[in-house]
Design a protein that fits this description.
heterodimer; A: mainly beta; B: Four Helix Bundle (Hemerythrin (Met), subunit A); Alpha-Beta Plaits; five-stranded mixed beta sheet; 25 helices; 22 strands; 42% helix; disordered C terminus
Chain lengths: 161, 729
């Protein structure tokens, strides 16, 4: 919690200065998350599927003794679900108090961006864009969407049995 | 300062003793032992704590102890009868006192509201109905000693005795105490002026029964040799002017009667004799254990000194109880989070070790190779570390057992039976989480043993047994589990009666042929109650089935051994910790699952003739003439769309909440294993049908099945299915 608060605080403070992002690819599009929320990057390992879970939750893996849920970011963002291979990558991300693995095609870049490069998400019809894209960043004529990680996990609507 | 800390530590060690004595004394009083020795012992325990606390300026503790002491004094004087209400209140007060002591020792905080409420409750016990809480020490303290911190460096700094002599007669009014002043403080101020010889006049102290706890019965005569003048002496009394009588007269020198500070401290009321304060203190130190460089008089020394003077109306009962003889083993207190983190890490280590072992095995390294030998050692070390870490959280079952005597008395009183409780193995240790959840089932079992197990005294005498029944409660470790037994020497289970009742209630077929063991186990069925009349204690039909369920929830098992006429023994076996679980590893539709072993009654291979369809999609399986619902785990969890062929599967007969039996269909059984429980909620959320997760030797996550949830789910699925059919038709 304190860690994420710290990250959050830093992110805010850094909006006026340069800050670092990890960019990754899903299909043809590029996305990024704040490097401060990334714990580690791992290769794909087979998951244990969870019953009664949304399609974008692939299952859980063992992260050094902790149970790590794996979210298929492609499925979450409305693309076709990934068919993971050993070349797929899991970005282990801190979201609030939880640690979640984001399954992506590949990590493409580490960016240092300044505030002036960050633009508000253009008002498009896509529900997905409104929910999961916090901002867009223009880098070298590419457009990279900044993921709103706190919306990635499903709402805990039925916590009971 | 070090010596002060050491003395403080001694005080707290003594407090622990006093608290134990207090509790056992109160329990004895509650049990009907009301001789003056017991009551006095209880009173002394509280008083000693209060006295010591005063010396260390532990104000909260002093205040509460004082109120408690006042109530106990009424008890001692016979003004208050030890009714169940009174002793109950006092036992709770003892808990608060213990909390306060611990808070004072460890710097924690106490529940102020509870403390206050009990303080008021205690005050309300005042037979005069006054109900007020005196804030300061009053005449009451004349009864026993009240140690006061004596700072010898102050005494060292005394002005050279010279000049004037005064005789001061100091008689406080009750108002002085009511205004939260303290005679002791004033007397101490006077001693700072010079050499003071203080004599306490106790001639006005009435008999205890007539003593007004808020009154003032003591007066003091002080002979003071000082360099100061009369005005300075008068100034000492400035704050209490009007609330006391002070007569100061200058006097010619006389050095006859001197002050024994120790005795004064020990018994404010005491006859006093001795040297100057300084000399007495030195003498005290020399007389008893030498304490070179000590700045403070050890309380126990003072108390012993007081006893040696034999001025106490009642001598202390445990003068030999010095710190050395009863010192608790040294302990440190650690944040629970840190311990939990350590347990997590060790869990990871265990998994890692298992993975490593599997990889070595897979790599085909021979058993004799150095690698395999090293691995064995690693495994042994890992287990040892795990056991040691678990031991950190372990606590003796004493904390649960301690509540039982009270329960036994209550139930015995309600049933009119006389019961003797024997406890064994109180020091047996088990994980904190288990301890916390042990109390309820144990309470049920003890109640049942007394209410249903033991016969009435008359019936016992008829059978040639002693009128007093015996309930034995014991705990021991057996093969990595804790076994708790509740045994009674009553009539044993009346099997024909049990079977008749079960048959009448439709729990079992009337003509069923049951073994003794099966009949005994009928009492665990929900809704079963053998008591002819529903009593307050048990027999609401929520008895043993609830016990069984809560024990199963802890991953435990319960069994009965009963011999007609000789009694019954209920044995529960519990895991030592809730962090690991004994599970059966199974595969379902290619997934590996763990089923808690405690839920499984038996496993079987379904045969074609045993499986029957029932209604739409439902199937049942015949197990010894009983039809049991067949639930396909793979389908319930959504691993496969269609029901598997039961003939290719293995059925696990499970007992779920309420004792209902179901057969769970799984593909194959891989084996039985102890697994470390990992939370799914920590990084995700609760998953229906899944209790938790674990990590297997191959490093993969396996889910632990929540048997009750899966069974409940299969029911609701069927219900919605049928509703749908009804709507469609």
């Amino acid at each position: 919690m304190t860690e994420s608060q710290k990250n959050h605080g830093r992110r805010k403070a850094d909006l006026t200065r340069a800050y670092e992002l990890i960019a990754f690819r899903i299909g043809a599009q590029e996305f990024c998350v704040d490097i401060m929320s990334v714990r580690e990057i791992r290769g794909w390992t087979p998951v244990t599927p969870l019953p009664q879970s949304p399609g974008f939750v692939r299952g859980v893996v063992n992260l050094r003794g902790a149970v790590l849920p794996i979210v298929d970011l492609a499925a979450r963002l409305g693309f076709t679900a990934a068919e993971p291979t050993a070349r797929h990558v899991i970005i282990v991300t801190q979201i609030g108090e939880q640690v979640v693995g984001l399954l992506v095609d590949a990590v493409s870049d580490i960016l240092t961006v300044t505030d002036d490069l960050v633009q508000a998400t253009p008002d498009v019809a896509s529900e997905m864009a409104k929910t999961f894209v916090r901002a867009v960043i223009a880098v070298e004529k590419r457009m990279i969407s900044l993921i709103a990680v706190d919306h990635i996990l499903p709402e805990p609507k039925w916590t009971g049995a | 300062m070090d010596s002060l800390a050491a003395i403080k530590q001694t005080f707290f060690q003594e407090c622990e003793e006093q608290l134990a004595e207090l509790e056992s004394g109160l329990l004895a009083i509650e049990g009907g032992i009301q001789d003056s020795e017991t009551v006095n012992a209880v009173f002394r325990a509280v008083h000693s704590i209060k006295g010591g606390a005063g010396a260390f300026a532990l104000d909260d503790l002093v205040r509460f102890a004082h109120v408690f002491e006042t109530a106990l004094d009424h008890l001692r004087a016979g003004l208050l009868l030890p009714s169940a209400e009174v002793t109950g209140c006092m036992l709770r007060a003892a808990d608060v006192l213990a909390d306060l002591v611990r808070a004072a020792r460890d710097g924690g905080s106490v529940d102020a509201a509870r403390c206050k409420a009990l303080g008021e409750e205690l005050a309300a016990l005042d037979p005069d109905g006054a109900g007020t809480v005196p804030e300061t020490d009053d005449g009451m303290d004349g009864i026993d000693f009240a140690p006061v911190l004596v700072e010898l460096d102050d005494l060292d700094a005394l002005p050279a005795p010279s000049g004037r002599h005064f005789t001061i007669r100091f008689t406080p009014h009750p108002d002085l105490y009511a205004k939260a002043n303290d005679a002791a403080v004033i007397l101490r101020e006077i001693t700072r002026l010079g050499d003071a010889t203080i004599t306490c006049d106790t001639s006005d102290v009435p008999l205890l029964s007539e003593l007004d706890p808020e009154g003032s019965c003591l007066s003091w005569t002080i002979r003071l040799r000082t360099a100061s003048d009369a005005a300075a002496v008068r100034e000492v009394f400035e704050f209490v002017e009007g609330d006391c009588d002070v007569a100061i007269s200058a006097e010619a020198e006389e050095d006859g009667e001197d002050l024994d500070v120790a005795a004064l401290l020990a018994r404010l009321q005491g006859e006093v004799a001795g040297e100057t304060a300084e000399a007495t203190a030195q003498q005290l130190i020399a007389d008893e254990t030498p304490l070179p460089g000590s700045e403070v008089i050890d309380l126990s020394e003072v108390r012993r000194q007081g006893k040696a003077h034999e001025v106490a109306p009642e001598p202390a009962s445990k003068p030999e109880a010095t710190a050395a003889s009863t010192a608790a083993p040294p302990t440190i207190r650690v944040d629970l989070d840190r311990v939990d983190r350590l347990i997590d890490l060790v869990g990871e280590l265990v998994i890692n070790q298992a993975m490593l072992a599997q990889r070595v095995f897979e790599a085909g390294l021979a058993r004799a190779s150095g690698v395999a030998a090293g691995l064995d050692e690693l495994e042994q070390l890992t287990r040892e570390i795990q056991d040691s870490v678990m031991a950190i959280r372990a606590q003796p079952v004493k904390s649960v057992f301690q509540r039982i005597p009270r329960l036994v008395r209550e139930v015995a009183a309600l049933t009119g039976k006389t019961v003797r409780l024997v406890t064994e193995g109180e020091a047996t240790e088990v994980d904190k989480t288990v301890i916390e959840r042990l109390s309820d089932p144990l309470t049920h079992m003890i109640r049942n043993a007394i209410d249903h197990g033991l016969e009435s005294p008359e019936a016992r005498l008829e059978k040639g047994k002693p009128a007093e029944g015996q309930v034995r409660l014991s705990a021991l470790h057996r093969s990595g589990r804790i076994v708790i037994e509740v045994a009674d020497d009553g009539a044993g289970i009346d099997r024909p009666k049990v079977k008749a009742i079960a048959a009448r209630k439709g729990l079992v077929a009337a003509d069923a042929v049951l073994s003794d063991e099966e009949i005994d186990n009928l009492i665990f069925l929900p809704g079963f109650s053998t008591a002819a009349s529903i009593s307050d204690i048990s027999g609401r039909g929520v008895g043993m089935d609830v016990v069984k369920r809560s024990i199963q929830a802890l991953g435990g098992r319960i069994s009965i051994a009963s011999r007609p006429g000789e009694g019954s023994t209920f044995t529960m076996s519990l895991p030592l910790t809730l962090a690991v679980l004994d599970g059966m590893v199974v595969t379902v539709a290619g997934q590996t699952l763990v089923v808690p072993l405690t839920a499984i009654v038996e496993t079987l291979q379904p045969k074609a003739v045993e499986v029957h369809g029932l209604g739409g999609a439902a199937r049942v399986i015949a197990i010894r003439e009983h039809f049991v619902p067949l639930i396909d785990v793979g389908r319930e969890l959504g691993y496969r769309g269609n029901d598997a062929d039961p003939l290719d599967c293995v059925a696990l007969l499970v007992e779920s909440e309420g004792g209902a039996r179901n057969a769970l269909l799984v593909d194959a059984i891989l084996g039985q294993r102890q697994v470390v429980i990992k939370s799914l909620e920590a990084n995700y959320r609760h998953v229906p049908g899944i209790a938790a997760a674990t990590i297997l030797g191959d490093g993969r996550v396996a889910l632990i099945l929540d048997v009750d949830a899966v069974v409940a789910r299969s029911r609701s699925d069927a219900a919605s299915h049928e509703t749908f059919l009804a709507a469609a038709g």
